[in-house]
């Protein structure tokens, strides 16, 4: 069912101002990891990562999210190594005119990235380490608080929820309160329900269907749906590169429920979908008017 989200108004994030009552921000994913979920290390090299980020910006991305360590289970990555992966990308994009976030759960990586010019920290552990909130508050930066259950880089087999949406909302409400108590300004907090993070496909579908309950927390809601397994399983064992249409459908549904930031791999296609929603809603004018004029 279509929902009317609470008004969020204008928010300045880094060099961009967004009117989240009338605008959807597209966040491009750029990973410097040899084992990344989607591209399997295709942008691990610094020059390839920077080129991918600039290509995404040319395709209309408002935001670039740089990662140096994926959430999924694996051996620990030293702080110094993760920082060496992400900081040069942040520095290279400092003049790009877009929001730059860094996907990390390590407070010292966050500190280095913010010093290099990042505007947002995207913490997929939902401030499991409260020191992360201190780092973000000290920098006057923004934070994405994401729902997940596992400790960083560790497995969490067969997660079970009595009511996944209610439990996700309770978690996010608690962690947002922690962020504010540690000094992060309320207008600098974004929430993400964490599709597929320690969740089964039915959980992720339920979160999408009832996303308006997450939006009702009153924070800009980010959805990271792009090419995830719940999309592939819903459509029939689709390979990660064959999930674009399903991912866009899920993103459109989420936006109609009130999501205002979408984190994606396929930038051009998603930008077109989001701008079309904006045009249909009357939030933006068509680029030009010629048909039957």
TrEMBL record:
<feature type="domain" description="Pterin-binding">
    <location>
        <begin position="24"/>
        <end position="275"/>
    </location>
</feature>
<dbReference type="GO" id="GO:0046872">
    <property type="term" value="F:metal ion binding"/>
</dbReference>
<comment type="similarity">
    <text>Belongs to the DHPS family.</text>
</comment>
<keyword id="KW-0479">Metal-binding</keyword>
<keyword id="KW-0289">Folate biosynthesis</keyword>
<dbReference type="InterPro" id="IPR011005">
    <property type="entry name" value="Dihydropteroate_synth-like_sf"/>
</dbReference>
<dbReference type="GO" id="GO:0004156">
    <property type="term" value="F:dihydropteroate synthase activity"/>
</dbReference>
<dbReference type="GO" id="GO:0005829">
    <property type="term" value="C:cytosol"/>
</dbReference>
<protein>
    <recommendedName>
        <fullName>Dihydropteroate synthase</fullName>
        <ecNumber>2.5.1.15</ecNumber>
    </recommendedName>
</protein>
<comment type="function">
    <text>Catalyzes the condensation of para-aminobenzoate (pABA) with 6-hydroxymethyl-7,8-dihydropterin diphosphate (DHPt-PP) to form 7,8-dihydropteroate (H2Pte), the immediate precursor of folate derivatives.</text>
</comment>
<dbReference type="InterPro" id="IPR045031">
    <property type="entry name" value="DHP_synth-like"/>
</dbReference>
<dbReference type="Pfam" id="PF00809">
    <property type="entry name" value="Pterin_bind"/>
</dbReference>
<keyword id="KW-0460">Magnesium</keyword>
<comment type="pathway">
    <text>Cofactor biosynthesis; tetrahydrofolate biosynthesis; 7,8-dihydrofolate from 2-amino-4-hydroxy-6-hydroxymethyl-7,8-dihydropteridine diphosphate and 4-aminobenzoate: step 1/2.</text>
</comment>
<dbReference type="GO" id="GO:0046656">
    <property type="term" value="P:folic acid biosynthetic process"/>
</dbReference>
<dbReference type="InterPro" id="IPR000489">
    <property type="entry name" value="Pterin-binding_dom"/>
</dbReference>
<keyword id="KW-0808">Transferase</keyword>
<dbReference type="InterPro" id="IPR006390">
    <property type="entry name" value="DHP_synth_dom"/>
</dbReference>
